[in-house]
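fwd from M.: "can u put these together and see what the complex looks like"

so here's what she sent:
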Amino acid sequence: MSEDLSKDFIRQIIDQDILEDSSCQVVTRFPPEPNGFLHLGHAKSICLNFGVAAEKNGITFLRFDDTNPTKENEIFVESIKKDVTWLGFDWGKKLTHASDYFEQFYLAAISLIEKNLAYVDESTPEEIKISRGTLTKPGIDSPFRSRSAQENLDIFKRMRNGEFSDGKMILRAKIDMASPNMNLRDPAIYRIRHYQHQRTADKWCIYPMYDFAHALSDAFEGITYSLCTLEFEDHRPLYNWFVKQVETQHCPRQIEFSRLNLAYSLTSKRKLNDLIEKGVVDGWDDPRLVTISGMKRRGYPASAILDFCKRIGVTKKDNIIEMGVLENCVRKNLGDTSERRMGVLKPLKVTLSNYDEGQVEYLDAQNHPNFPDLGIRKMPFCRELYIESSDFLEDAPRKFFRLKPGGEVRLRYAYIIRCDEVIKNSNGEVIELICSYDVDTKSGTGKSDKKVKGTIHWVSAQHSITSEVRLYDRLFKIPDPANVDDIEASINPHSLEIVEAELESSFAEENAPKVFQLERNGYFCLDNMSEKKSFNRVVTLRDSWAKIEKQALNS
RNA sequence: UGGGGUGUAGCCAAGUGGUAAGGCAACGGGUUUUGAUCCCGUCAUUCGCAGGUUCGAUCCCUGCCACCCCAGCCA
């Protein structure tokens, strides 16, 4: 492994800060709102926040941004903790919640009111919307803007005491209704919500807004680098305004980076939630989603996700990462770590006419071609076998070096066979092949120097285990599902295919691997969530034959 | 048309006043009883465009163009 020579712009800023002041601490935070499950975009943020701190012996808080009780719940809190841990990060004792600071936020709001920097506005939401102006027209002051601090103080306290109903009034920062930055046109600081909060229950009926709570939480925790995505760039002046006006002891610095976009997939909690509610996918952990729990269930190793985050980098550029990058990380990780097995996804029966009925041979099969230390297993070989249907073609193109009528192919770890006869059903579909084997070509014996182009996998029909296997493809037909009106119309109808596969007999053993490669088919894992025994295809192998076929089709 | 950002290959991404890293993809070849893995090689005379400064500009200056974000009592 060569060392990375280049650092992203955030790490460069931090390096520079440390160069200028060696006492400079690195304190970061990962601050999800517990209103959904984490996805790959969060993984990017987690890797950045935890990574940057770890590199400088700093610390990272896991902070739940729970300022909106109507959208949040304990299930999401637990899932987030689980996912962060699974990715391999440890927040130690630094587990906090925005709600831990509700009292401090309240006091900070009081101080703003006392400084005449905040006021209670009793306008309706519609009135506030209109008076805010537009992108090109300045807003106008609210009639409540000039209320005395005394009066504001009194009403705000009564807001807290629950004297008013939801939506009746808000506390606003008094900044500048004519600011070209919309966020500075007297943004809301507190709103009234008579709603059970998952942690503070009914202790509060007023809740702070994101900009206020986030800036102050960062300041209270001594966060030095508050790393967030680009859409908050316009919020930075407001963030800084709160920190300054509340006169916190510590001043955090917000730095923004671009969010992750992965082609043919969705990284938006809201849109994921829609798909789940409509039943388009099975839940947050559907293996077709790039949620952390979905990818985990699919069989993606955490280290592959970490590797992915490292490869995509951190910049301020809009980006769309190709699916291949993620898949490649998964293959790369699994290639060296998973044992090989054989399994036939779409079986085609093969009968060896010259192999004795009732005879069984046990043939040696390597568990990993590159690592002999991983040992061998015995595979039973009989007169009746299954091969992959796609490994036989009646009208084979020139470069197809698998089985065809009259052609020969090697059965991996076994013999070379020749296809003598093709049996079809009344629909003309091939249902069985009658073949003959060449006894001198047994693997490892060196009796024959016969060479064939192709080697295919197989299982003994008598010994194979029928098992459910789930084959996944990308969830969407289009690269940018996030940008279309009708997401459901862009769903790939073939994103999940369930097949009855025939697996080699070793899967009956107690210590059969949970994650493995089915040779020539891809990487698979046992699905821990389904009730019956079922396997997920994690990712296919790279397939240059498929590429050749596709090219032939296009030309 | 206000404000804030971003433009380096098909996709990511370094770089910086001295002649364009790296990864993925693609392509060509080698090894191979997985059309896998692995190995070797090819792949930007040019950095959104146009001017200017300079011996020299992707980098500095000016103008233009394209794309993204912002008008929640969401985060």
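replying to her w this: Residues 26-257 of chain A form a domain with the Rossmann fold fold (CATH 3.40.50.620).
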